[in-house]
Amino acid sequence: MSLLECRLERELLSTEEESAIAQVGKARELYQLSFSGRLGHDLPRHGNKEKINSGLKLSTSRHRFDRVDIGNQPVAPFEYLDFLETVVFPHTVNTFSTKFLGHMTAPLPEFITEVAGVISRMNQNQVKVETSNVLTLLERQVLGAVHHKIYRKQAGFYESYMQCPESCLGVVTGGGTLANITSLSYALNSAFRADGNFAGLTKEGLVSALNHYGFKDVVVIGSKRMHYSVDKAAKLLGLGERNVIRLETDSHGRVDLAQMRSNLEECRKGKIHVLALIGIAGATETGSVDPLEEIGALAAEFGVHFHADAAWGGAYTLSSNHRELVKGIEMADTVTICAHKQLYIPMGTSLCIFKSPGFASHSENNTAYQCKKGSYDLGRYTIEGSRPASILMLHALLNLWGDAGMGHVFDTTLSLTQNFTGKIKSSENFLLVQEPALNIVVYRYIPVTLREKVLTKEKLTYAEIELINEINKKIQSEQFINGNSFVSSTTLVNGEEEVVVFRAVFCNPLTRENDLDALLADQAKIARDIEIA
Ligand SMILES: *Cc1c(COP(=O)(O)O)cnc(C)c1O
C-alpha cells in the first residue's frame, strides 16, 4: 500500500474505528517499552574483584524505600534503569562471588539463565495442559528420571506410570518448604484415606479421621536438626509444633536410632499416629546425613511413612559416583530435593518425589474448569495452582551436564570442603566442630586467651563459653558488613550448651584454594582487631 493510499484509507475511517486503533496503538506502545538490552549489564558476576556486600545497613536505608506512590507518575525506561543501577543492584548480595561461602545459593550456569529467559517469554502455566501442552509431558518425564535415579525401578515401571495421568511419581514445588509440606500432607491423606463409611481425611477432616481410625493424636518424628519447614507443615495440618518430636543426635549429627525406636513404641502403645519418620540427607545447618537405611528399616517395621528431607543432599543421586553419600534414600516413601540448591537452578524450584505411583491419589484436586479426572493436568496433584515451567531448566541441566558433569561439580565442591576442613584442623585460630558428611563445614574461632584451655579440653566456665560465642557472632557480622568474604552463622544446641558456629557451604565449583585462604585470613584479621579493642 502506498503512502497516498494509506492516507486515503485513514480518511475513510469512522471516529470509533480511529479511537479503537489509537487504543491498540497505546497498548502496543506500553508493551514495547524496553531497556534496549542494557538491563543487568553491570550485575556482579563470577569475578573476584567485586565485593560480596556493599555494607548498606537496612535500618539506615529504609527512607529510600518509604514512598507508597510508586507509579503515580510513570518514568522512562532509562530513568528507571538508572534507579536500578544506582540504588538497587550495587546493594544486592553477590551470590556469584567465589568468596560467598555461607549459604545454599550458588552462581548459575550461563545456559540456565538463558533457559530462564525463554521460560518467561513463553509464559506457560504448568497447572493444566491448556496452558502448557507438551511441557506437561516433559515435567512428568523429568520427575520420572529423578524417580529412577533414586529408586532404580525396572523399565516396565516407568512405561506404566511415568506418562499415565492416573499416576504421579512426584510434583514440582516452589521450594523445599512446600515439598516437605506436600509430602507430610499427602502422607496424612493417604494414612487417613476413605475406609468403609468414612469418606477420608480430605472430605471429613482431622477430628473425624482420628475418631474413625482410633487415634488420639498425630506426631512427626525426626532429629533436632530437622528443617523448620517441618514445623510449618505441622502448623498447617492443624497439628502444632509440639507434635514434631525432635530427637538427639550423635557426634556426627545423626539421629539417635534408639530414641527413635522407643518413641515409635510409645506412640504405638499410646494410640498416637506417627505421620512420618523423617531422615535428613544434608541437614541445613551442618550438612549431616541421618542413617537412612536404619530409619527405613524402622519405618517398615512399624508401618510408618518415611520421608527423606534431601533438600540439600538429594542432588547427589544425580551422579552415579556420589549416590553412596545418601545411601538408603531409596527406602523413603517420599523425597524432597531442592533444584535451586545443588542443581544450580534459580530460586524457586524443588521436587517432591513419590515412591508409589498411587501415593498422591488420596490428595487429588479436581474442578469443573481444570484438573478434571482423567486429564493430564498436573494441577490435579499439586498444592500450588499456577506454576512456572521451571522444570525446563532442570531438563536442560540433566541434558547438558549429564551424569559426568554433575559428578565433576560434586567432586570439585567436595574436595574444596576437604581442603577447607584440613585448613581448619591445622589452624591455631579455629576449631572444627564436626567432621563434615557432605559439603558444609561448621567451625569456630577460639580467642587467644582460651586456646590452651580448649586444646587441653579443660572445662570452661559459663563466662568463657559466652565469650567464645560472642566473638564468633561479632566476627561473622563484621565480615558480612565488610563484604570481602562470607560465611554464615548458626547456634547449635548440644544438651544445655549453646554453641555459636560459622557455617561454610561449598556449592560454588568456581571457588579456588586462594579464596579459602583469603576467607580465613579475613576472619583472623577481624578477630584480632576485636581482641585488641
Ligand atoms: C533448604 C532446606 C529446606 C527448605 O527449602 P526451601 O527451598 O528453603 O523452602 C528443607 N529442608 C532442608 C534440609 C533444607 O536444607
UniProtKB/TrEMBL annotation:
<dbReference type="InterPro" id="IPR015422">
    <property type="entry name" value="PyrdxlP-dep_Trfase_small"/>
</dbReference>
<dbReference type="InterPro" id="IPR015421">
    <property type="entry name" value="PyrdxlP-dep_Trfase_major"/>
</dbReference>
<keyword id="KW-0456">Lyase</keyword>
<comment type="similarity">
    <text>Belongs to the group II decarboxylase family.</text>
</comment>
<feature type="modified residue" description="N6-(pyridoxal phosphate)lysine">
    <location>
        <position position="341"/>
    </location>
</feature>
<dbReference type="InterPro" id="IPR002129">
    <property type="entry name" value="PyrdxlP-dep_de-COase"/>
</dbReference>
<keyword id="KW-0210">Decarboxylase</keyword>
<dbReference type="GO" id="GO:0005737">
    <property type="term" value="C:cytoplasm"/>
</dbReference>
<dbReference type="GO" id="GO:0030170">
    <property type="term" value="F:pyridoxal phosphate binding"/>
</dbReference>
<dbReference type="GO" id="GO:0016831">
    <property type="term" value="F:carboxy-lyase activity"/>
</dbReference>
<protein>
    <submittedName>
        <fullName>Putative pyridoxal-dependent decarboxylase</fullName>
    </submittedName>
</protein>
<keyword id="KW-0663">Pyridoxal phosphate</keyword>
<dbReference type="Pfam" id="PF00282">
    <property type="entry name" value="Pyridoxal_deC"/>
</dbReference>
<dbReference type="GO" id="GO:0019752">
    <property type="term" value="P:carboxylic acid metabolic process"/>
</dbReference>
<dbReference type="InterPro" id="IPR015424">
    <property type="entry name" value="PyrdxlP-dep_Trfase"/>
</dbReference>
